[in-house]
Write a structure and sequence with these properties.
Layout (H helix, E strand, L loop, with lengths): L3 H19 L10 H23 L1
C-alpha cells in the first residue's frame, strides 16, 4: 500500500525527472477529492447500467 505522502512525493519526483529530460515543466498530481467523487459516480452509474442490462 502507498500512503498519500508517498504518492505526492512520487508526483514531485516524476515532475522533476521528466521536466529536466524534456526541458519543459510537466506537472504530475493526484486527483482532488472532488475529481475522485465524480469519477466514482460515473463508474457506479456505468456498473448499474451493465447490471440492469444483464438482468433483462
Amino acid at each position: 500500500m502507498v500512503t498519500h505522502e508517498q504518492a505526492v512525493a512520487y508526483c514531485q519526483w516524476r515532475l522533476e525527472v521528466v521536466s529536466k529530460k524534456l526541458g519543459i515543466i510537466v506537472n504530475y498530481r493526484l486527483p482532488t477529492v472532488k475529481e475522485c467523487e465524480e469519477i466514482a459516480q460515473v463508474l457506479l452509474r456505468e456498473n448499474e447500467i451493465k447490471i440492469s442490462r444483464t438482468l433483462k
